[in-house]
Amino acid sequence: MNTVIETHNLTRRFGTKTAVDRLSLTVYAGEVFGLLGHNGAGKTTTVRLLNGVLNPSDGSALVLGFDPVKQGTELRKHTGVLTETPSVYEGLSARENLRVFADLYGVPRDQVDQRVDQMLEQFKLADRAKEKVGGYSKGMKQRLALARAFLHQPDILFLDEPTAALDPLASKDVNDLIVQVSRDEGKTVVLATHNLHDAQRLCDRVAVLEQGRVVALGTPRELAHQTHQSITVEIEVAVGQGERAKAILNGAVSEIKGDKLTLSNVAYTGIPDVVARLVSEKIAVFSVVPNEPSLEDVYFTLQKRGESS
Amino acid sequence: MNWRAIWAVVRKDLRLVSQNKNVIASLTIMPLLFFVIMPGVLVYLSTGSGSVLGEMQSDLGEFFANMPPSLRAELQTYDTIGQQFTLLIAAYLFAPLFLMVPLMVSMTFGADSIAGEHERKTLEGLIYTPITDFELYVAKLLIAWIPALIVTFVGGTINAVVVNIAAWGQMGRVFFPNAAWLTMVLWLAPAIAALGLSAIILVSARAKTVQEAVQLGSLVVLPVVLLLIAQLAGVVYLSIEVILIVGVIAWLIVLALLWVGAKTFRRGELIARL
């Protein structure tokens, strides 16, 4: 896998406050990488550092082979950023907004009209492209900001709280667009969010930040296994075999409803043994559903650990 | 230097500012007052003051004698004391007032350029683009300087027409603008506009609202107000020599402010204030 972002002990201090603290991570081409954390955890500062709009106090980063400190201007030609507030010009139309940014990003002059039309169409703004953006809904403004971030066909998209302050329908709309641009276009997406449901749905890997530090890094499943040693498993066996299965598992079953057994505190790696024991005793196992902890469970577990330490 | 990006920012800002009714009102009312109404009315009134001035001839002679030699020489080319008085009103009384207009225009646009983006929460989108810090700085300077120059040159032309019409009964010919006035419009007014905007951009980059920027930057108006008071009190006359010297001083200050501005205008600093 090609590395597109690599940071080594990246640190940014504002006076006595350390916003990003020795951040070391790698992001690979084509993945949706989540930066999770509550407000003030260092997500936005990280996005700024990775785009060369803020200089680090310490450490280094390499984004698409560019050093953000020395080659920020060149780097920003290849990145697109959706900021937390849409940052759109409300006195201009959507088309005018996109044309301004086409010039700023250096979209070839002979392609500007075509690219702008394409973005307006793709982000469902074509019908109201000539209206001033001040009259748009929040969701439409966010779609316009997303179109702007994607206008120059960047290699990496940084999305900072893309669904913050949006209603569920508008959030779904924006999330669908993120899925569309990442899967269909194969772009790398760095998603900075505190919305754990969005992260669960969209991210291939996540880094959980707390006070500027990475406290966990991996796929949502890896993090679930790291934070939750034992899980709940639901097993469905053949009709009439429920009680016998319970006896075989010798007290591991916490609940039984007909042919469905619920096992608590099962190690994730112990599930195959459980199934093997049932099968060896001629129990027909129809389904095994491990109830994996969600990213939300992982996040709150990490939070509790942080507080207790 | 990426001029395409610079002009994109300039066009965008001018478009947005042109939608601001308060800005348009101040851009219309102030030049109308200082370039048309006040000089037109006063110059016209001065043309009817011949008999009164005749009675005061000895006092005025003493008044003229205290003026700089170049101004005295210019006054002597006019036949009557009424014409001399009209020239004084038209070309010298309003000179510092004329300077207020480009200064205020450049400051109005300059205050809005960065602090306005802060206020409207649009700065962050701009800062993530490939435009360099210096290009953004140049764009923000041009946004303020271009309207100031347009208002100065257009307003100066209208002012000349109005003054000549108002004084036609007295002068009977086109007498205005004179050399001092032209020097002021072409040399000092652009310098004063640049002085105002280079100061206000420095302030605007550090302010969070337009109001804060205007409050901090309005100190720049003081030297021009002092110039106005000094001229009305008869301490200083904006003769060609004085205009050239004040212009050189203003341009030197502008260069110093621009140098400091270019060195300190950093997107990291701007974004840290968001």
Give a verbal description of the structure.
The complex is a heterodimer of chains A (309) and B (274). Helices cover 37% and strands 29% of the residues of chain A. Chain A is of the alpha/beta class. The two termini of chain A are 36 Å apart. Chain B is mainly α. Chain B is built from 15 helices and no strands. The model of chain B has no long low-confidence stretch (mean pLDDT 83). At the A-B interface, helix 2 and helix 3 of A face helix 1, helix 8 and helix 15 of B.
Q: Compute the separation of the termini of chain B in Å.
A: 27 Å
Chain-averaged pLDDT of chain B? 83
Helix content of chain A: 25-40%
Largest sheet of chain A: 6 strands, mixed
Biggest interface reads: A-B, 30 and 28 residues
Uncertain ranges of chain B: none
Strand content of chain A: 25-35%
The structural class of chain A is alpha/beta
- What is the number of strand segments of chain A? 13
Q: Outline the biggest β-sheet of chain B.
A: none
| Number of discrete helical segments of chain A | 11
Tell me the layout of helices and strands.
The complex is a heterodimer of chains A (309) and B (274).
Chain A: E1 3-14, E2 17-28, E3 32-36, H1 43-50, E4 58-63, H2 72-76, E5 79-82, H3 94-105, H4 112-122, H5 138-150, E6 156-160, H6 168-185, E7 188-193, H7 196-202, E8 205-210, E9 213-218, H8 220-227, E10 230-237, H9 242-248, E11 253-257, E12 260-267, H10 271-280, E13 285-291, H11 295-308
Parallel strand pairs in A: 3-7, 3-8, 5-6, 6-7
Antiparallel strand pairs in A: 1-2, 1-4, 8-9, 10-12, 10-13, 11-12
Helix pairs in contact in A: 3-4, 5-6, 8-11
Chain B: H1 3-18, H2 21-47, H3 50-55, H4 57-65, H5 69-76, H6 81-93, H7 95-119, H8 123-127, H9 133-166, H10 168-171, H11 179-204, H12 210-217, H13 221-232, H14 240-264, H15 267-272
Helix pairs in contact in B: 1-9, 2-6, 2-7, 2-9, 7-9, 7-11, 7-12, 7-13, 9-11, 11-12, 11-14
